[in-house]
Amino acid sequence: MPEAFLEKYLRLENLPTIWCAGCGLGTDMRSIVKAFDTLELDPDMTVLVSGIGCSSRMPAYVDVNTVHTTHGRAIAFATGIKLANHDLTVVVVSGDGDAAAIGGNHLIHACRRNINITLVVLNNSNYGMTSGQYSPLTPQGSVATTAPYGNVEQSWDLCDLARASGATYVARSTTFHYELITKLVTKGIEHKGFSFIEVITQCPTYFGRFNLAGSPTDMLKYQKTHSIRIERSDGTEEAITIGELYKREAREYCDHYDELIVRAKELKAEMSED
Amino acid sequence: MGDARVQLLQGNEACAEGALAAGCRFYGGYPITPSSEIAEIMAFRLPQEGGKFVQMEDEIGSIASIIGASMAGVKAFTATSGPGYSLMMENIGYACVTEIPIVIVNVMRCGPSTGQPTATGQGDLMQARWGTHSDHPAITLAAASGQEMYDLTAKAFNLSEKFRMPVTMLSDAVVGHIRERVVLHSPDEIGIVQRKLADESADEYVPMDVDDSHIPALANLGSKHHPYYTGLVHSGKGFFTSKPEEVEYFIRRLSLKVEKHKDELIDVEELGTDDCEVCLVSFGVSGRAAINIAQRMRDAGKKVGHLRLKTVWPFPDEVIKSIAAKCHTFVVPEMNLGQLKLEVERAACGEAKVIGVNNISGSMITTHEIYDVVKEFV
Amino acid sequence: MRYEIRLSGMGGQGLLLAGIIVAEAAMAQGKNVVQTASYGPESRGGASRSEVIISEKAIDYPAVIEADYLLAMTQEATDKFFHEVKPHGIALLDSTWVKEIPAGNVESTYYFPLTETAIEKFEKAIFANIIGLGIICESSKIVEPDYLIAALLDRVPKRYKEMNQVAFETGIELFTNGKIPKGVAGQAVETV
Question: Smallest Cβ distance to A66: which of B74, B228, B231?
């Protein structure tokens, strides 16, 4: 018998997932819905939105209101959803190609608007769904199906990008640190504003195989040994910094718009009195 | 001054007011000539009605945001012109497949690519039908005046809600920018249509259950039924299917929604089509000159008729066929290189000659241009 | 009958507003109207124009083909549009700005310092368009003055209503009293 929170938040009838054996996405999904459970989110008022890619198949398995949109556009759809109905808790799951490449512009502008949406980018360093092409987050030098001689492009620190673009909550975890994912997603949803959470996750089928990263277990071990908690970091280590990287309070977009509505209605009333 | 509901309005203003009257409470858009006034007016007017306006980072974001808002239960639309319409195409297909009501107003400009942004054209007729990939249904209306900018925008909302699909309204730089007399019909006069919603008191909701209408009920986001929307081919509870018979049924059903209701959807304006020997066929702004020619030639005793399509998609094949049985020539004036003409030829099945009058200069097609062609065949 | 009015000059002269007022007045009088304006960078300080088409019948072609009435408030607008006026049409040129009347065969060309008069009487150049409206109203007889005044008062801010009405009536009086001289086509005028 699965645990109660899985019964509550997963569409068990749709399992097993399409994800490969050893893929990190199942673990990530469990950690995300565990956060839903921690917050006791009402599934009727929770919306999970995704784009296209392996991670974007997640809404089919999560028993809340769910939208599987087009490639790269999940955040733009979510913007419409949240603005139309502020009462909905809106969470977006996206992959590295989806969020950083084709959807990069929407990501930047959602951060800038500081709209109350939580984005979880499940970064497996490549396009898994289309069999392992390089993404903007593929490390330089790594092999991919479209980088057979090694990736010549610079990789990106998406957390830096989110912070610079105006996101007011920025955090990172790895799949190995599955309890940290739950903690960060919980805090991200609680935070009023745009929350950006990156999860470094393993794709043993493509990225791992092409780059001789070993078994899924080896890849998880790598995540463990190559990460450092932000609290213990002096910023100089060659490691994945994990934890809450950045947080600040700022006016949230929907709230701001509601104030605007009040002003517009008052002005209209004044004008009609004239 | 007189009846407050009768106003001198710019076409783009009339469009925005028509949307508001139809119950639109969300607009997501991106600035583009010659449609920008619609966004500007919605930014001003929506908050007054408690609605939301957002200027997105591009037209792809615009259409995504309005689909999202509509999924959340709020009537939503966007307005654009050719380049923006091109960017929206993928998500128009998504709205067809997820069956989400949205309205897109395309204020057409002249030419391909950036073209001539402030000049008029009618080159996006086929794009409105076939712009997004693969087989999908389309409903497209075409406005010829400020009054129709108001009326047909409102109608576009009603059709999108009823048929659960995107509806495009085509306009152009002339109709969008001229000011004309517009009667602001009330929501009661318009007759507001709301989408058929899933029964929230029922224990179960099967998203793909449909009756003879082929139009399923919709569960807005925030439903106890936990809908799953996807651009993947789906069946039953709304999840992906690859079973050939389910795939075939799903894709056919989307188009059947329109095919089965063609009589209800087709809306044409006819003058003398019963007895004409030469019939003008037009849509949108070209119809203004065309009807003038038809009327003047009829007044002079010539058997000339005029058919103007207010609904361009679905195409009124049957109407064309019945006129083709009586007339010997169709003359099709349009501000493109013959897109409507192709459809008239297809529907006429060789029963009548089809002659095009094409103006792609960026200026409006004139009565003289049309007359010079029509007189050759009367 | 189709009547075409073209109001031309530069941005800031209130030509768009004048066009809307004429269109609203004609509409209130039960006529069909189409009003258009030039768009783009032109409306930001450069050349500007606004057109009104008034007709008993439906208006098929919503743009000026050959103007029945031209108001030109700059030399540039005069040079550009004077030759697009019907021979039996009317042109009203603001002699404050228009120093040379092009050669042409426009039957009635009125030539009067609209802007200077506005500054003299109201200390504001912006009323030139409204004085012009009064002259257009009286010289064209295409729209009843009462309808024009109603449309004008409906469109201007409360505190300027009275001044606008006076400006409009000034235009009417000037014309009625024969104070609007005719210009001669092709005549260059010495600048003061």
Answer: B228
Q: How far is A80 from chain B, CA to nearest CA, in Å? A: 4
Q: Which two tokens stand for residue B56?
A: 């997105």
Assigned CATH for B268-374: 3.40.50.920
CB contact under 8 A, B291 and C58: yes
B6-190 and B268-374, same CATH topology = yes
B91 touches chain A (CB under 8 A): yes
| C2-176 CATH pick, 3.50.7.10, 2.60.410.10, 1.10.357.10, 3.40.920.10 | 3.40.920.10
Cα–Cα distance for residue pair B220/A88, rounded to 1 Å: 11
- For A26, A127, A181, A216, the CA distances from A197, given in Å and listed in that order, are 17, 19, 8, 22
Give the separation between CA A66 and CA A74, rounded to whole angstroms: 11
Domain boundaries, chain B: 6-190, 268-374
Q: Decide if B67 and A80 are in contact by the 8 Å CB cutoff.
A: yes
Q: What is the dihedral of CA A256, A119, A244, A165, to 10 degrees?
A: -60
Q: ipTM exceeding 0.90?
A: yes
Which residues of chain B from 28 to 57 reach within 8 Å of chain A, CB to CB? 28, 44, 47-48, 50, 52, 54, 56-57
Shortest CB distance from C61 goes to which of B6, B118, B288? B288
SS (H, E, C) C121-190: HHCCHHHHHHHHHHHHHHHHCCCCHHHHHHHHHHHCCHHHHHHHHHHHHHHHHHHHCCCCCECCCCCECC
Of A93, A100, A250, nearest to A181 (Cα)? Answer: A93
Do residue C33 and residue B2 have CB atoms under 8 angstroms apart? Answer: no
For residue C48 the two structure tokens come to 């500007």
B154 to chain A, any CB pair closer than 8 A? The answer is no
Q: A59 — contact with chain B (CB < 8 Å)?
A: yes
pLDDT tens-digit series, residues A200-234: 999 999 999 999 999 999 999 999 999 999 999 99
CB-based contact, B191 to chain A, within 8 Å: no
CB-based contact, B14 to chain C, within 8 Å: no
What pLDDT is stored for residue A272 in this prediction? 83
Q: Strands C85-94 and C67-72, how do they pair?
A: parallel
- What are the pLDDT digits (tens) for B212-244? 999 999 999 999 999 999 999 999 999 999 999
C152: chain B residues, CB-CB within 8 Å: none
pLDDT tens for each residue of B149-161: 999 999 999 999 9
